[in-house]
Write a structure and sequence with these properties.
about 300 residues, MetI-like fold, mainly alpha, phosphate transmembrane transporter activity, about 75% helix, 2 domains, transmembrane, membrane, MetI-like, transport
Length: about 300
């Protein structure tokens, strides 16, 4: 019996170790290839340059247009997903009956399993034509449609994690608020939501991380036009842009050599994207641990 348990323990440890080694291998390959790229292209030119043209002469490797496009789509998606997801979570946690919740919660989570390419075509076929009736100057590929569809896509992440955080708040806290004469709305916003704040904020950041790393939906809906955009300029929202992930797809599908600087720029973009999402996840974990409420 002990031998059998030891074998199971070693097997489980091996799978856990394999996962860690694969992760380190991916990060190591990103670092190695990015270092090779920076031996030929100045980091200052890459991070501060405003022109991106790795495959067409004159070549330029400024990543700022891609970063600005990524941040534009992420901001638009967050403005849609954060309030919608939080309100959906509050309804599921505080108002919905168990029967309704048993139907809506799985249905909401099913949205997270829909392939992102489907979201992209949904934006291109339905969202963009609808918006064009309201905004005649809207381009076929635009940042606004991409932001909307990515926002819809990350609502399940925000709603599901926030709802779990809200339901983790003890019922006794709610009853204490009712005993003091507070209305249900006041109890929710003054007691329940603040008590679950760490989990709610973590869901926001995880949703934003998901939006930053989105590829297919953004590529289909927003187009592939690398340009430095101003998030505060309404005209930039109705024109095509290119995000970091879309640029990686474009380079990967091009006919450039695997040893060329253009191809190596793919890894530099990936490393930059990795740093951005890693930082957001680190902030999420910090907030979750720093403001976590422990109930007995």
């Amino acid at each position: 019996m002990r031998v059998k348990e030891k074998i199971i323990e070693i097997s489980l440890f091996s799978f856990a170790l394999m996962t860690i080694l694969i992760t380190f291998g991916i990060v190591a390959s990103l670092i190695f290839e990015t270092a090779y790229f920076f031996r030929h292209v100045s980091p200052i030119e890459f991070f501060l340059g405003t022109e991106w043209s790795p495959t067409i002469a004159p070549y330029s490797f400024g990543v700022l247009p891609l970063v600005s496009g990524t941040l534009m789509v992420t901001l638009g998606a967050a403005l849609i997903a954060i309030p919608s997801g939080l309100l959906a979570a509050i309804y599921l946690s505080e108002y919905a009956s168990e029967r309704v919740r048993a139907i809506l919660k799985p249905a909401l989570e099913v949205l997270a399993g829909i392939p992102t390419v489907v979201y992209g075509f949904f934006a291109f076929v339905y969202i963009t034509p609808f918006l064009k009736k309201i905004i005649p100057d809207l381009a076929a590929y635009n940042a606004l449609s991409a932001s909307i569809v990515v926002g819809i896509m990350i609502i399940p992440i925000v709603a599901s994690i926030s709802e779990d955080a809200l339901r983790a708040v003890p019922k006794s806290l709610r009853e204490a608020g009712f005993a003091l004469g507070a209305s249900k709305v006041r109890v929710i916003w003054s007691i329940v939501v603040p008590s679950a704040l760490s989990g709610i904020v973590a869901s926001f950041i995880l949703g934003i991380s998901r939006a930053i790393g989105e590829t297919m939906a953004v590529t289909i809906a927003a187009g592939r036009v690398p340009r430095l955009v101003n998030i505060l300029n309404p005209e930039d929202w109705i024109k095509p842009i290119e995000t970091m992930t879309a640029a990686m797809v474009e380079i990967g599908l091009s006919d450039v050599s695997g040893e060329s600087i253009a191809y190596k720029s793919l890894f530099a973009i990936g490393f930059t994207l990795f740093i951005m999402t890693f930082a957001l996840n680190a902030v999420s974990n910090y907030i979750k641990m720093r403001f976590r409420e422990v109930y007995r």
